[in-house]
Amino acid sequence: MDYLKAFLIGGLICALVQILLDRTKLMPGRIMVLLVCGGAVLGALQLYQPFQDFAGAGASVPLTGFGNLLWKGVKEAVDKEGFIGIFLGGFKASAVGISAALIFGYLASMVFEPKMKK
Question: Which sequence ranges are marked TM in the entry (predicted)?
């Protein structure tokens, strides 16, 4: 049942993003920023964590989950280190995910032949 919930919630988030792409003139980069900022704001309002507890990976894997992760990291670092935590918290909280994306992207580029679009 957890897999089904994650699939449906994650799919709903992706469908809403696709509607934004199709129905507005927003560029994909701006929509990505909206998702990250939206996740951070919902995390600050303490609304995202209950949603994530319900949806599991369906809410933690999309970019809204990344925004929430950044918010949690900044909040913890500010509580522990004060003002400097504003700058350190997001990096500490997201370092593993960003590193994994870079490493797996590099490995994929070694396995496959990247080609430029014509």
Answer: 6-24, 31-48, 83-108
Contact 85, 72 (CB under 8 A): no
Residue 24 Rama label (left phi>0; alpha psi -120 to 50; beta): beta
Give the residue from 13, 73, 17 showing the smallest Cα distance to 43. Answer: 73
List the one residue out of 52, 77, 55 whose CA is nearest residue 67: 52
Which pLDDT does position 50 carry in this prediction? Answer: 93
pLDDT at 17 over 90: yes
* Mean pLDDT calculated for residue range 98-111: 89
Residue 5's Cβ-side half-sphere holds a number of Cα atoms within 13 Å equal to: 11
What's the rounded Cα separation, in Å, for the pair 13 and 7? 10
Residues 6+ apart with CB under 8 A from 2: 56
pTM of the entire predicted model: 0.77
Percent of the chain past pLDDT 90, that is, above it, reads 55
Determine the pLDDT at residue 114. Answer: 74
